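Subject: Sanity check before I submit

Could someone independently write out the structure tokens for this chain? I want to compare against mine line by line before I put it in a report. The sequence has 496 residues.
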Amino acid sequence: MAEDLDNVALIDNPEKSILEAPKEYVEATDYATSWYCDELDVEEGFLTKKDYAKLRHVNCSYLSSAKAPTLLALKQHAQSLANLIKTLTVSDQFVKINKGKKTKPSDEVLSNQAFDWIVDLDTPYTNADGYHHLPLWKIHNHIRAECSGENSTVQYHCPLHSVDDFGPLAAAGETERKRLPYKTHRNLLMHANECLEILDHDYSATGGLISILPTEHENDRYQLAGARNTLVGQWLSQYQVLAKRQHDFEIEAANSRDLLKGEAVVPMQLLSSAGIEGRAEGRQVAYPQDRFVLVNAGDDVFNKLHLTLDEEEKEAHARDQGRAEGEEEGLRSLRPSQAESTGNLVFVEAVSRFYRLKGQNKGTLFVLPYSDDHPGVGATRKLEMKPAAVIVPKATWPERGTISHEQHERELDELRTRLERAERAAKDGRKLALGKKQGGGNTAQAETEEVKSLKRELEEAKKTIWDFEVQETRRAEEARIEREKLERASKKRKFF
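---
Independent answer below. Compare away.
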């Protein structure tokens, strides 16, 4: 299997996303978890890096619950905290709220302003303004929990998790009131990446995520048509087509480089003369041998062919010598040697490859000699033989030796032992009941009940063993059918 998956990169970390947690989030404190929301992105311009130090202790249940807070709720919460601090501490001085600013603070705080809740700490804050009752989903915490340890990480809410919407702008219907507060582009990408990593890990034995698509086999055509109507199916199908085209282009480019390597005799029929003089001369005659162009015929293949011919000549000489010795002993070789059949010629069977440009019915033929063992095209042949990606490796079926099978075997042995004991006990019980039949009635009745109990246990043991054997037979038959199906699929399934 390792040879079939040389070009497949498998991801074996389904529980850890390759996307790291964002750096722009407020870290956890001793009293609250970390806090991250849409407005914490520095690129959005809502906050700057200096603001993170000010928001170090901002997180609380108001920002991390399933319900987004409103501006009114935040001000009420701030007023309650201010009252709690006022109760726990003693203050004999005062400062202005807007101290340090260039603008002069007003003597009275206007309504609906940022700090209108601090005007009267003795009166619970309330506000009838509609904007104060809008849910602030932008500051809602996206972090669900934290994992403590050597590598502390945060876990985010599922972007498809829905909550009930509320506020003046909420829809009236029950279905429309559902909202997806965590459905940001980043969260959706992280969630999709984790799902794809899990699928790729589960299908790693068959080539990863690409092998999820059904094959073009007749039994899978209906499923393949349905898969191509989905976004993931279209994406994987396009990837397979592009990968196959890229692989074909690489092979074609390699063959083109092999044709252009070295010197090639340009055929006469491809020559043309430009200008009036050239057209006046007319077309020159192209001889049959000019229709074939010998390409990539350098010293490497020349020496390779001569080396092969030298070996063949040595073998022919050895056969001739053996034939001569046989004639001296009165024996004759039934098969004539190469030297005898061809005189002074030595030949070898060598495969050559012929190329022709597409669209030319009887165009020029480019001949690549000794294409199988050509020293200069070995990399191209290897590229043609080896697929760019392997979807399904060769089907194998391991021997039955799993823990589950061993456990079933132990249960079967225990049931057989129990059956033997029950049979012996039943026989002994019958003898004991017959021997004491003349005795007391209670004793005989007790022995009869014991025999009946042993009989019931015996029947249960037989039924259990029978069910177990039937189940094992059915499981073996299903395994055989599945194995044959995998073998047929591995033969008919195409790469990509």
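---
OP: Matches mine. For the report I'm noting this point. Residues 143-213 form one domain.
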